[in-house]
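User: Design a sequence. Structure:
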């Protein structure tokens, strides 16, 4: 991850910045995705909505009704990413799985520190579950796809479903390069992200660091994709081990010789093809 962001620093006016600001990180991620020049796939239809003041974008692969629904919760170091950055991957997911994909632009730290992002992710989950038929989907448990920091929010969502006694309607979850732990780290950039996101929240809180969850039975069957050179790899491995202790179905896949996907996943760059194929196979139940 450190290599990724140091590389992205070079995209900003050719200047290496000693300590990035949230705005610089957002710009780096956005510009990094654009610089890859990946043409977005054609999609049958897109609808934009605002739900509880949260921007939502719905992707339709065809005119077919009662399709499965995938909730796409984007990553971006918990301070960046939005509907535009993850446009390519949302389109590709919809087409490849023949599913309706619902993406959101949750509030970001540090302007909106914990728990604002999580509140938005929970709110849109509830809206999807209550509106499956009206948006063209079928009334059935949904799937969730998340990457990087978005995985932390999705794990926390599942804890909140139990805490808030919400309807549990998650069939399966895909975690790409997941972060599950905002406690101690030796990585300078990761430390900065944690500071921005937490403000003064307790990093040991299970909603902040879901790896510390008291009850791992809240988590749905999942695919966990980790990259061999990614500093977040141990978090995905540890999460899988804890699921295994409770015999919760999960698949742990390691992508060899790759660092954190970073901008490659949202851009739907060919670098992610192996991970994407595993994800589609898992989501399709094949």
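Assistant: Done.
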């Amino acid at each position: 991850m450190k290599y990724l962001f140091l590389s992205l620093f070079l995209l900003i006016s050719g200047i290496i910045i000693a300590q990035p600001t949230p705005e610089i990180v957002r710009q780096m991620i956005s510009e990094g995705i654009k610089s890859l020049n990946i043409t977005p796939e054609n999609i049958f239809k897109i609808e934009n909505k605002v739900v509880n003041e949260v921007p939502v974008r719905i992707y339709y692969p065809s005119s077919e009704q009662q399709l499965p629904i995938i909730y796409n919760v984007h990553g971006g170091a918990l301070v960046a990413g939005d509907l535009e950055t993850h446009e390519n991957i949302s389109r590709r997911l919809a087409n490849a799985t023949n599913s309706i994909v619902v993406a959101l632009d949750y509030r970001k730290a540090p302007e909106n520190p914990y728990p604002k992002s999580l509140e938005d992710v929970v709110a849109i989950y509830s809206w999807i579950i209550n509106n499956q038929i009206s948006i063209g989907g079928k009334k059935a448990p949904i799937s969730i796809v998340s990457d990087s920091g978005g995985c932390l929010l999705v794990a926390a969502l599942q804890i909140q479903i139990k805490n808030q006694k919400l309807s549990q309607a998650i069939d399966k979850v895909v975690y790409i390069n997941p972060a599950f732990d905002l406690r101690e780290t030796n990585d300078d950039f990761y430390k900065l992200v944690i500071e921005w996101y937490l403000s003064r929240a307790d990093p040991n809180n299970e909603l902040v660091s879901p790896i510390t969850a008291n009850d791992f039975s809240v988590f749905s069957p999942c695919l966990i994709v980790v990259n061999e050179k990614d500093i977040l790899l141990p978090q995905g491995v540890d999460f899988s081990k804890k699921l295994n202790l409770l015999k919760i179905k999960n698949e742990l896949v390691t992508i060899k010789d790759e660092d954190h996907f970073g901008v490659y996943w949202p851009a739907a760059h060919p670098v992610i093809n192996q991970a994407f194929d595993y994800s589609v196979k898992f989501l399709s139940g094949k």
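Residues 40-283 form a domain with the Rossmann fold fold (CATH 3.40.50.1820). The chain has one domain: 40-283.
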